[in-house]
Design brief:
Radius of gyration: 21 Å
Helix content: 55-70%
Order of helices and strands: HHHHH
Distance between the termini: 33 Å
Number of helices: 5
């Protein structure tokens, strides 16, 4: 509890050492071609998938409707509770992918 009173944080908190999977391309995890890091590629792919879901599916349109006005969405015969469950499940899945 020393850090609560302004003491220094342990070195392991300020500069973590990440664990790398055996066989990873480089410590920076660049793509196999070396031109773009893998996390950036994953972010781009996830962004495209999210855009397609929001623009082209019933779930995406329901997300927009519920986000705009939940009561209006309910009056438009959208199952708000069910859709919110799906939305929370999808948002819970995305940060777990590495």
């Amino acid at each position: 509890m020393f850090f609560c009173w302004g003491g220094p944080a342990p070195r392991s908190w300020t500069s973590p050492s990440p664990l790398y999977a055996p066989g990873s391309p480089t410590p920076t995890r660049s793509s196999p071609d070396g031109w773009l890091p893998v996390p950036v590629l994953v972010m781009i792919v996830m962004g495209v998938i999210t855009a397609v879901i929001l623009a082209r599916t019933y779930v995406g349109r329901a997300m927009y409707a519920i986000g705009g006005n939940e009561e209006a969405a309910r009056l438009s015969h959208i199952r708000v509770k069910r859709q919110k469950l799906i939305i929370y499940a999808l948002s819970g899945l995305t940060p777990g992918w590495r």
